[in-house]
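Quick start: what a row looks like.
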Amino acid sequence: MAKRSARSPRTKLFVLDTNVLMHDPTSLYRFEEHDIFIPMMTLEELDANKKGMSEVARNARQASRMMDDIVTGSADGIENGIALDPPSHGLATGKMFLQTEAIHIELPEALPTFKGDNQIIGVVMHLAEREPKRPVILVSKDINMRIKARALGLEAQDYFNDKVLEDSDLLYTGSRELPPDFWDTHGKDMESWKEESHTYYRLKGPLAVELLQNEFLYQDGEAPFQAWVTQKNGKSVVVQTLTDYSHARHSVWGIAARNREQNFALNLLMNPEIDFVTLLGQAGTGKTLLTLASALTQVLETKRYSEVIMTRVTVPVGEDIGFLPGTEEEKMAPWMGALEDNLDVLNGTTGEGGDWGRAATRDLIRSRIKIKSLNFMRGRTFINKFLIIDEAQNLTPKQMKTLITRAGPGTKVVCLGNIAQIDTPYLTEGSSGLTFVVDRFKGWGHSGHITLQRGERSRLADHAAEVL
């Protein structure tokens, strides 16, 4: 045990709770030069959670396999800690310690020792007493466990490494308001030309360096200006004016944009060059309605895609949809209320034809919209489809990758969600798969993102969103 204390006092010792490993098995390699300690109770809980096909069970098995590889591939004794440098290929330079001895520590009477959480807290107390010169920190995704540890005078932290952003307010919104003096500062050597109904501007200037490809730009005032960045070459950008979907003649399946962000969203949804679209926004901002309207237009009118596939996370997330009688679509029907509501709106915009005409249109629409469960997505390839992922804020980055990599040639993927409404345990606004893809895809030439700001349901819904 002497060698362990010989580590520099600056290297911290992180004690990992089970939920950290079940959330991210690669967390073993995420602590850089610091050491990690795995209590025996953590291993017991991993063992108890390894059975099943859920994401948690898969992660528990992966964490166990990774620890097995680390232990079997090392010539060091477990008591002195196992160097993480070789198995992590340089990602982590600290050591991994496993609990190799029974630890007897007096916990306060209010903490029953038969609970796994409290046994892990006991391990942290023991390590803190034994190594007073270095910080011993409990890492847990469980808020109550962190509170208990702090109440006992121990250091405790959340696991932050999976977070794309510390603050969701910093998330890329997809649009930017141009300063009033933009044309004065960027108008030098400006080129402009027209192609079909769009005007193009090639600009240079201080702001051009910051702009991302497919970012929307706008300026309010007497002559409102709306455009987006279509090319970026070093310090110069090409900006193209938008199609105005707020005008009735450009309406999509009878739906016109009611505000600036909805116009931006329709420009993304209707553009064949954009393969991946993410729409964020509160309830009632029109995410599903705009997406379905553009999907039906491009499937039934322009025949750009062969059919619409809609899926959403059924909470509990990714678990089985059950053995109730019925097809996959019938089992998914209770989760698809939002789809039904929006189809009723869209079906009312198809014009004349009376009840018979509407019924025929409804049947035609139904034949082209398929509802799929996330559980059966692995291994599939969608060719020439319009794939809509609703409630995407409840997906982990790993599940999001599984879904987006299903896209074959000619397929467009649209992710919809509201990161303020996350129902999945252990996912936060910073670590949601939706936040992850918005951040990773920004600036790619074939993807676009917009955060919808204004609710367009009713004055009652808007007021409720503000005051409740």
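That is the whole record. Residues 1-6 have pLDDT under 50 and may be disordered. The two ends are 57 Å apart (CA to CA).
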